[in-house]
Known about the structure:
118 residues; 2 strands; mainly alpha; 3 helices
Amino acid sequence: MSDIITINQEITDNIIALSRAVKQLLIRATDKAEALGAYEKKLAITMLELKNGKVIEFEGLDISYASATGLEKIAKGICYKESIVLDLAESKFRNLQVAINAYQTIINALQSKLKYQE
C-alpha cells in the first residue's frame, strides 16, 4: 500500500513539474522569437550600412574594400552578439522541450508501475 502512495506522489510531483515546464515553454518561445527578430533586424541594417559604405571598419580592420559577395558573411560577423543571444534562446527552448518529453515519459512509466501495483 505504501508503494502505491509513493508512486501516486511521484506522479503528482512530475505532473506539477510538467505543468510548470509547459508554462515556461511560452516564455522561452517568446524569448526565441524576440531574439530572432532582433538578429534579423540588426543583420538587415548592417547589410544596408555595408552596402552604402557607412560601415568601413570592424574590430579595427578596414572592410571598405570587401567584395559584394562577402558582405553577408561580414554582416553576420558584425552581428555576432545578437547571434549568440539567438543561439542561447534556441538552446533554452529546445532543452525545455526535451525536459517536457522526459517528464511525460516518467509519468507514463510511473502510471504503468502503478497499474501493476494495484
